[in-house]
Amino acid sequence: MQSDRMMRAIAVALLAWAAGCETHSSKTVDRAANALPLESSPGAAEQPEDWFRDVTERSGVRFAPETGRDAGRFTLLETLGGGVAAVDIDRDGDTDLLLAGGGAIDSSSGKVTGTAPGLFLNDTTGRFTNASHRLVSASWPYSHGWAVGDYDRDGDDDFALMGFESTAILRNEDGERFVDVSSYAGVRSRTWDTSGVFLDANHDGWLDLCVAAYVEFDPQTSRPCPQGTPPQPDVCPPQRFAAQRDHLWMNNGDGTFTEVTEAAGLLPTGRGLGVLAADFNGDGLADLYVANDGDPNHLYLGGLEFPWVEAGIASGVATNEAGAAEGSMGLAWDDFDGDGQADLFVTNFELEDNSLYRGLGNGLFQHATVASGLAGQARLDVRFGAGSVDFDSDGWPDLFALSGHVVYHSPRSPFQQRPALYRNEAGKRFRNVSERGGSYFRSAHCGRGCAVIDLDGDGGQDLVLVDLVDSVRILQGTRSPSHWLRISLAPQGGDPTGIGAQVTIPTGRRTVQWSPQRGAGFASHSPCEWHGTLLTSDAVTVTVTWPSRQTEQFGPLAANRRHHLREGTGHVATPKPSR
Amino acid sequence: MSPRRNLPANRPRSHRRIARLVIGLVLLTGAGWGGWEWSTARCLARARDELLRNPLRAEQIAAEATLNWSFQRETAWIVRGRCCLLSDEIPEAYGCWSNAARPNRASQDDLLALADAALNIREWRLAEWANAAAERSNRNRRIWLTQRLMLSTHDQKWDRVAIEADGLIPLAGDHGPTWMAIAEAHFALNRFPLAAEAFRRAADAKATALSEQQRREMTPRWAQLLIDLGEFDAAAPLVASELASQPNDAGALRRHATVLRSQGNTAEALSTIEVAVQVAPDDERVTVLHATLLVDSGKNDEAAVILRRVIERKPYLPEPRHRYALLLREQQNWEAAVSQEQEAQRLSQLQRDLLNAQFAWNTERSPKLAAEIARILHQLGRAQEARMWERRAQP
Q: Do A395 and A338 contact (CB within 8 A), yes or no?
């Protein structure tokens, strides 16, 4: 009897144990079956029809900026990342690369130190050699953005490297050495400078430096802000910190600069992240657009004297369609709809659309995100760098935007996000073709700065992409046009970068209007030139209206070549009526 | 001689006393019962009035029937409890429900059914009580946890919501209402993509499909979420199904117009929103979209009239001012345009401040924060709401 009871007890215990096992295993299966997709799937291998091919390994560019995130202090500083300057540094006819080095943050004290930037020289075929030793500085800033311009007018491009509580001026010494001359130049920034451009703000023929500043931030006292549920330590939003005023450094013509921020009328509001210089109102003078994070964007219309007039709201480029300020970062400038007026593309924070402002002429813009089919595209992503080029060689400028979050535990989207590629359908609408962009576009990253340039001289546009947590990537465009043209400008007066000029180029398909710009991308610099597709190999005649309002014709210009057009060397055309 | 006469002298007196006592007790009980009944009836009448004012009346009556079915003999207690709740007599309400569902009378199934019914009619306290009273068991674990999650979501207990929602996912299986509760939880936690996915799972559930009522409630929220996420193509069939059942629903028409506009179909979007305007002429979301579509169609003058009307009616909204400023700019009326835009920007900033403060209020219910919200509302010109927050700000 007793043994019966014992047997029964053992049987019950075994059954209970078995039931427990069964419950446990089915729970595991259920969890797998019901789990919601959280991460983007990894990118598939390269396909023959892809628009881009990742050639980083082959290029020899091995560089990953430091962020300081490994310190585990969750600072806002570690989230911004940096950019790239694509420029012919050694004047050998190809494009070299300068990469911001970022910096480190001490895990216990929060002290910030800069990391040296990278310099990679192109051998004309798209293979690079590390020449970073040519960059000379006693102390590098924790760096983000590049500005490029021949500020000392010695015939080669110099550089400004914007960073945390410092902007360094690097003087180009005949393409051999690049020396930090910030102290001599008198550029002593104590703000968090994110990006900048050289432009002739006071029309004296010397390039001045305009710098976007972000927020008042002290990494040594900064504490994490919990994010997510359950809360985990994370990066605080920029709204927690007061905005800093952007800066304008006026070139004295002797290698030194004087700050004229107040005189220029730059506003103290706005957490500046992106800067773009272009002629927004067609008056032949350079204007300045500042993309602000969470504040209305600023458009400073350059006049013949200071102060500039801030006209972001009046021009219609300050906010989204509903009048709300957005978290703006990256910028692109092109005539996307082919109406002869340049348009502005701005990337924004998550749950906001990218903004496409269609140029109406006379400095007026219309928010056209919905009309262009860009509404809702990648709305959950945090978008940074952007660029516009005719990637598929159909004669219309396409768009790309890089994405990657700034907080680690967002309840809405992952930290690494997929970049997006939009095909321009004859100026009517954009279509998302990211799946055809190549393996890079099919996988998640944390993209920041970018440059668009023909690195291998095949006439197709390539991409240099800077990542927050990964190494720099080089993407080769695979849809190179059979016939192409590259045009850059050299005006005699006005802005030496050519901003303010208007160029008319008959491509065979249609007539393209090009208005030069500087600052597109994010914290980056791409060459200030038009690079487009021609229908045939026939030479074309190009009309340039210079910032001086003189109109000249150049040509016939042979296809598949780069042409540097100097004011006064073309055929003077019938003067174009003043706009 | 009558035997009564032989009774002790005090007997008739005590008999009378007892009789009086009994009568008194009967009268007292009757009066109490009558009063209870009267007050219950009065409360019930009030509850009925509430129901009549409530758009969910049909669903509520259906839920009432469920209550009656589950607690046939105890309905009076439940009704009484509801009445207590209407009168803010919360402890009494709990007492009534406890009586209605004493352990030997109500099973766990009954209690969960009661909680379900209460959730359907948004009687959160009854639902909370019933859910808590229903002991957690493996048999009904999913239902119990689903109700728990709905209650935590309603009470904005975010830490719990996150844990409960994540914990419920492995149990959700093919159970539509559970996925719906998970979706609402994710939505409240701003996990929008997860919410959209959970809504989809809820809609697709076959084993325990959503009721018609649940589907009707969920579809507009899901469609709006997809639109907010920019997934217009995915939202389109949902909006179509909304319109198939309710062709004159202003919200559905507005969503349909938004989807059509995003797809570049301006003409159809305009004709759709014009129907919505007929249905809800005072809904500013409808009228502002109407004005936007008129501008898209080149009918700026008509748009300006509409926007002026919205600004007059709701002067604290920034968007109509911004859109009106753009129209003024096109007319080259620069001064008026700048003035409208500046006001739009001021209001926009205030709206952002208000959202931030309201978000903070979810976690920190301090008088200081209430005062801050009241101040912003005053600045926005929303005096009535500001006064309500001022009351909350008082210690």
A: no
